[in-house]
Fold:
Amino acid sequence: MKLSEILQGKWLGHPLHAALVHVPIGAWLIACAIDVVFFAGWITSPIALRLAQYAVAFGLLGALVAIPPGLADWMQIKPDKPAKKLGVYHMLFNAASAALWGVNFALRLDRPDAITAAILLTSLGGTAFLFVSAYIGSLMVYDHGIGVARFSKKELRQRAVRAGSRVPDES
Amino acid sequence: MASAKNLLLGKPVRSPLHPALVHLPIALFPLSLLLDVISWIRPDPDLHLVAASFYCICAGLITGLLAGLFGFIDFSEIRRDHPARKPATVHMILNLVALGAFALGAVLRANRLDLEQTPILPALISFIGVGLLSYSGYLGGHLVYAEGIAVGRHRHKPLFPDETLTVARGNAVMVPVADSSALPESGTLRVKVAGTAVTLARHGGKVYAVQEYCTHRYGPLSEGEIADCQVTCPWHNSRFDLRTGKVTHGPAKVDLKTFRCEEHDAQIWLESPAP
Structure:
């Protein structure tokens, strides 16, 4: 198995990138939610600040791990497909989001006892970029079918043959 | 009714909502387990690891239930005889069991948030819960990436056919397969005549019949979009002329089989395929 295939998740049978992105998306969303309610003064517990800090760190780790499989997926998309361009935007928004969350984490280490305006802004900005990029990612899958039937095409082909459908020659 | 369901299926945003919501529980439950582990390695009251882990589970439960609601909607749109129905059912059961386990764990944790280390029993429950969730998440990935569930669904404006109409081969050349009223304009039916799967589609009042599976990656054409007398595969947007089966847009390169069909006596009649 080639490196690109390992990164794409051939051993798993599914795209690896899609499985990994749960971590940054879920963790950063919850961190942002905590930041907003803490900044608004609805909660004041230091536990919330800690949880947000852990979530941001967890998200950063997850995002880092999700990059190589994401690149491997993108490289497999043919250049003339509309999803290729979408992938570039997806990548740019992810980079912007991850950078903001990186800054956010550094700011938190400086001020672990409060949500400052700078922490809130990087949190909101990181989430906004993430939202756009995640939505583009979902369009790549659900609108353009990227990664769909990539590893299951043999089984699907057999299913089609059994049901009397014409199929292309095996290549 | 159909339009309300289409909304819950996420068709206006071209994306299903269950997969968008599951990011939260899938990130939160493992994060909670990670915090438990760190609480054993570095017990320190200032880190609030045990309490943070508890609130993490609570947030996971709330968002998990919300994701589950949309999961039921997505589940209900899988055709009853679809091969994905079984993994989808297992996916649902495992998720419910995992949520139950985390709820139990949360109850066990609730009164001991000032501890420095997570006790072994709730941590063990979380470990099992994360295990269940991992496998169930894997099945969710299978549903989307191996079976194409919800992929391109938004382009098929009516709801999907809820089952395959199965017809045995008759002695006659043409066999009745469905009432005319069962197939509205731009709608589809999935029919199996003597084992051959056929997509019936109505366009401009006329009924057309083509093979069920796309010739690119074998996407289900009965779940495709019907427009301009063409069917578009829900998965990778290959397009075929309904009259001739010819490819009008790639990535598919091979034309579809077409089947003769007629409509009379308020019924749709399909050519019985050669044995």
Summary: Chain B has six helices and twelve strands. Chain B has two domains: 2-154, 160-271. Chain B touches chain A through 64 residues (CB under 8 Å). The mean pLDDT of chain B is 93.
